[in-house]
Design a protein that fits this description.
The protein is mainly alpha-helical. Helices cover 58% and strands 0% of the residues. The chain is built from twelve helices and no strands.
Length: 247
Amino acid sequence: MARAEFESIIAELRGQSIVLPDLNAIFGNWPKQVNANLDRLRHDVDEWLDRYSTIFPHPSKNMCRMILTTAFASTMSHNSKLEALKAADFAYFGATWCPQGRYDRLKVFTLLATWLFAWDDGSDQLYPNEIDMNDGCLWENLDLSRPYRDETREYVQICLGLTSDVDRSRTRPTNATIHAFEGIGTAIRDAYNSEQIRRFMDHMEDFLEMSRLEQILHLQGTLPSMEEFWSYRLGSSAVHVMLAMNE
């Protein structure tokens, strides 16, 4: 869809009200239990977020290149971002998805979901409310986002044991959000067989590629058709990555 048509649709929608149906009726037959370990999980998720957060100085608009090379760069590096991630209550998300799950596996599942949201925010806007989207950062620059995805791919493979044995301390990523995958990847590697690990990595590769395609469409300034949208959206929202954890 051409940019002119895209802008025309946006102009038509601006100021309009959309009424959603009663979702309770639509999902009335879905299970509604909550895992009994919710409070414990909330504590552990918050602790995990605190561990990988870094207080970072107020960023300037010309920081975008520097954030990819500094050891302090992280999507969780600003207090407001950290508090927003905690307020999202990923523990409740995990506890409702896996109401009967064993705690050790529930924790890994929930931390993966939290990490995926944090990672995606890293490509959307590294410092929400601090760097305007129109001034450009990862989400506004395909060249800058490429090393972010490449480093993620490489480190996930290392954590899953899909590369030759290496000293992880020498391959620690420069981005703290990417580094936060380490404990998650180790737990997946220890619990899954080689086929399951490979399948998980295939879905992670798809997630990275579909997020790239989504960014390209955004940068082109075009509104995708429904067919185009569904061709990438399940991948870019990591649906298949999370489903791979159901095993």
